[in-house]
Amino acid sequence: MVQNKDVEVEKREKKTDSSKVGVAAIKYITYLIIFFGILWFLINYVVGPFL
Fold first, then answer.
1. What global pTM score does this model have?
2. Cα torsion for 47, 48, 50, 51, to the nearest 10°?
3. Which residues, 6+ apart, have CB-to-CB distance to 32 below 8 Å?
4. Residue spans of alpha helices (H) in the chain
């Protein structure tokens, strides 16, 4: 007696997506650079003459 059985093999891999961390870091570092650039501009060219 031969029995044919259909067997489904499902492989699950745990994905660690470190690229999302890199993208977030670059985004927030860019925000900080822009913020400090605007702050530097305000201190030097807007507030500076009054000091």
1. 0.59
2. 120
3. none
4. 18-41
Tell me the C-alpha distance between 9 and 6, whole Å.
10
As a whole number of angstroms, the distance between CA 27 and CA 43 comes to 24
Give the integer Cα–Cα distance in Å for 47 and 5.
80
What's the Rg (C-alpha) of the chain? 28
The tens digit of pLDDT for each residue in 17-51 reads: 778 899 999 999 999 999 999 999 999 998 888 87
DSSP structure class, residue 42: I
